[in-house]
Amino acid sequence: MYKLKLVLLSSMLLAVACSPIGPFFGPSEDSPIPVTESVPSDEKVVSQNQELNAEIAALRQELRDLQYSIERKKAEERARSEAEAAANVSREVVPADRLWVTVSFRSGFMELTSQSRKALAKLAEKFMSKQRVQVLAIRGYTDDEPIGGYPGKRHKPRHAYKTNLDLSKARADSVASALMDVGIPGSVIQAQGYGATDFIASNKTVSGRAKNRRTEIHLVRQ
Fold this sequence. Notes:
By secondary structure, this protein is an alpha+beta fold. It is 51% helix and 15% strand. It contains six helices and six strands; from the N terminus they run αααβαβββαβαβ. The chain has helices at 2-18, 22-25, 42-93, 114-128, 164-181, 206-212, and strands at residues 97-104, 134-141, 149-150, 153-154, 189-193, 214-221. The strands form two sheets. Strands 1-6-2-5 form a four-stranded mixed β-sheet. A two-stranded antiparallel ribbon has the order 3-4. Strand 3 (149-150) and strand 4 (153-154) form a beta hairpin. It starts with a helix and ends with a strand.
């Protein structure tokens, strides 16, 4: 038995001497373990680069779209603010309806005096010197004296009009014609008569009635 073990041990030592140790005992602790790295193919690298470039391009486009949206909103906000500011200035500078000039008339007359015509010519020049957003509303009025005088104090009228309403309209038309004669377009003039209404003074006095016999020129915002 002892001889048999010795023979077997000798055979094993001979085999180890003639062959690598690995197949019998595996790699030794000092032997390096080979590492195999996975190297991608050229086609795979190209495909990955294309996908990455596409993602970068998409992100850049999103950034450009976002910047454009922000700039557009800023521009809209500026335009809105400017419009509101202009509207506020317009409301402050240009009232909806403002009395500009009053033209007085003699009792029973609808014609303008030479002095009134000169004053209206200067007024027209001033009106046309600026770009306007208004029209001229010309409103004629009379005192409360009936056509032909008060009862008990009658007189022959100096005109052919039968009512104070017609007389007030004739006075407004007279002012409108004078303004158009010096260059104001008829398209921005509106003439209307209101008769014996809207008194600004008492009709019981001569001076009060003289104030009520008038034609007012209003600047009216369109």
